[in-house]
Design a protein that fits this description.
The complex is a heterodimer. Chain A is built from seven helices and six strands, in the order E-E-H-E-H-E-H-E-E-H-H-H-H. By secondary structure, chain A is an alpha/beta fold. The relative contact order of chain B is 0.06. The chains are: A alpha/beta, B mainly alpha. Chains A and B meet through strand 1, strand 3, helix 6 and helix 7 of A and strand 1 and helix 1 of B. Strand 1 of chain A pairs parallel with strand 1 of chain B.
């Protein structure tokens, strides 16, 4: 991939990749956007199962491949409520958390370096439905965008030991600015915001970040 | 088992004097900080809109904002 992307580096590396395991519903969308923005503004690459459109590939295979390509993972278990239609909880997110933990435990080489952040709406709620992970650090985000950005940024800084990553409040302010402009950006690109796919949103975010670096007075 | 080691005799060593430095030979002050520097990265996969169209849209809106900033009209609604 040698596309001219300006100051953006194209491609992924194991140590830059962050797997996102979260709900993809409309209600969660602002938190999902916040996760993607915080990851990219911190200099990492957001990956999730939505990046592959190949329906010939088995969904679980697709997820396992991406998990094995990511050093970092973020699992949000905040949507374990009962589905009103079927009165059953959704197990996809705990399943993917389990695959990720197994990948680190039984994998070889670089897979042993994998680290995970588990998010929930409240810090100790998980003990009621998935008590086996009681030894893990679980962070509560209270369904708040700014809190989600802060915990994700702090996790990436701590685990990667990288320097030069802006603070959580700075990233949150930039996120608000970027997504406030999204309708205008979409208008300029002749597309409705509701029509954007995961890859489109990521590409808008990275294009915006490249155009408005931290040093820019315009953002 | 005896280990094989690569050895180069002094006479066959090539002189590097006067040659431009390779990337890996740059001094510490010349080297970028690598992973410690925050660089914006992307997967590079294209969704439903081309990367060029997205970049052009962002650049157009940014130019408009910069013009507004320069003229003192900092209202974000344009």
């Amino acid at each position: 991939m040698k596309a001219d992307r300006g100051p953006v580096r194209v491609g992924w590396r194991f140590e830059d990749s962050v797997f996102i395991n979260c709900p993809f519903d409309a209600q969660y969308a602002p938190l999902f956007d916040a996760l993607v923005f915080a990851i990219h503004d911190s200099g990492f690459v957001a990956r999730c199962s939505l990046e592959v459109a190949n329906s010939a590939q088995n969904r679980l295979e697709k997820i396992m491949k991406i998990i094995s390509e990511c050093r970092f993972s973020i699992h949000d278990l905040s949507r374990t409520d009962l589905d009103p239609a079927h009165n059953l909880p959704r197990f996809n997110m705990p399943l993917e958390l389990g695959i990720d933990l197994g990948c680190r435990r039984f994998g070889h080489g670089r897979l042993r370096q994998k680290t995970s952040l588990v998010l929930d709406s409240e810090p100790y709620r998980y003990q009621k439905f998935i008590s086996d992970i009681a030894g893990q650090d679980i962070c509560g985000h209270s369904n708040q965008v700014n809190e989600t950005i802060r915990v994700v940024r702090d996790f990436l800084v701590t685990e990667s030991e990288r320097k030069g990553i802006p603070g959580g409040s700075m990233i949150a302010a930039r996120y608000a600015r970027c997504f406030e402009r999204l309708p205008v950006l979409c208008l300029a690109a002749s597309i409705q915001p509701s029509e954007l796919t995961f890859l489109d949103r990521v590409n808008f975010v990275t294009a915006w970040l490249a155009e408005y670096p931290l040093s820019s007075p315009y953002w | 088992m005896k280990k094989r080691t690569a050895s180069v005799s002094k006479s066959t060593k090539k002189s590097t004097a006067g040659k431009p430095k390779r990337k890996s030979e740059k001094s510490a002050s010349e080297k970028p900080l690598g992973p410690t520097v925050r660089t914006i990265k992307t997967l590079g996969k294209v969704g439903t809109i081309s990367l060029a169209r997205i970049r052009a849209a962002v650049k157009a809106v940014a130019a408009q904002e910069k013009r507004a900033f320069a003229t003192g009209n900092t209202s974000s609604e344009s």
